[in-house]
What does this fold into?
Amino acid sequence: MQTISSELRRRFDNANSVLVLTGAGVSAESGVPTFRGGGNTAVWKGMPFNVISSARMVGRDLPAVWEWFDYRRSLLGTLAPNPAHYEIASWQDRFPDFTLVTQNIDGLHQQAGSKNVIELHGNIWRARCINCHARYDISNGDSRRSECVSCGDRLRPDVVLFGEMLPPGIFEQAADSARDCELCFVVGTSGIVYPAAGLPEIAKAAGAYLCEVNPERTALSGLCHEVLTGQAGEILPMLGH
Ligand code: BJW
It folds into this structure.
C-alpha cells in the first residue's frame, strides 16, 4: 500500500503555490480510455490515434476526424468525474495560489468543479471554424452544425492535434505558473507529448518539489523527487485528508 512520505506531507500542508499537470490517466477511473497502454481509443477503424488525431488527417479527411470525435463525445456523455477530479477541484480552495493544467479535452475537471483550468489541448465539447476560427459550443445533444455561421466554411473539433500549435499564449501561461510553484504534481500522464511534458522540467528548474502519481513508471518518473505508485483516484484523496 502506497503511503505519503513525511517530506511530502510537510510540503503539502505548508505550500502556498501548487501546480497540477494532468493527463489521460486522471480520467481512466471514469472509464475514459487512455491513449497509450491499451483501451478502445488507441486504434480507430484500423488507424492509430496519432494518425486520425493529426493535422494531416483534418486536411485529408475531415468527416473521418469528425466521426472519431463524435464517437468519443457519445462515450463521454455517459461518464462522470471520479474521486481524483473532485480531490483536485478541492485544492483550488486549499492553496492560495493553485493552477490546474490539463492535457485532457474531456471537460471532466470542470464538471468536478475546477475553475480556470488551463486546457493545453483544447476541448472536445467545442468546434472551431477552419477559416475564421469562430468557436461553437457542441455540448448540447447529438447534433452539431457542420458549417460556420459567420463565414460558411467547415468546422473542425477545437482540439490540438499532432503537428498543430497550441492555442496562442496558453503554454506560456502554464509555464509561468510552473516557474512560480513550490509543489508540482504530475498525474496520469505518460509524459512523452511536448510541450506539455516540459512543464515539470520548468517547475523543477525553478526550485519546485515534483511528485508523480501514476500506476506505472513514465518518462518523467526520473525527474520527480517522489513517485506515488497507484491510481489517481485512490492516491490523491490520501493527500487531502
Ligand atoms: C493512470 C491511471 C490512473 C492509467 N491514475 N494514472 C519535442 C520533441 C519531440 C517531438 C515534439 C517535440 N515538440 C513537439 C513535438 C511533436 C509532438 C510530440 O510531442 N510528439 C511526441 C509523441 C514525441 N507534439 C505536438 O505535435 C504538439 N504541438 C507542437 O508541439 O506544436 C509545435 C510544432 C508544430 C509542428 C511541428 C512541430 C512542433 C501538439 C500535441 C497535441 C497532442 N494531442 C493529443 C490528441 C488530442 C486530441 C485527441 O484527443 O484526439 O493529446 S495526443 C494525446 O497525447 C492527447 C494527450 O493529451 C496527449 C498526452 O497523453 P497523456 O495524457 O499523457 O496520456 P497517455 O495515454 O499517454 O498516458 C496515460 C497515463 O496514465 C499512463 O502513464 C498510465 O500509466 C496512466 N494511468 N490509469 C493515474 N487510474
Summary: The radius of gyration is 18 Å. DSSP finds nine helices and eleven strands in the chain.
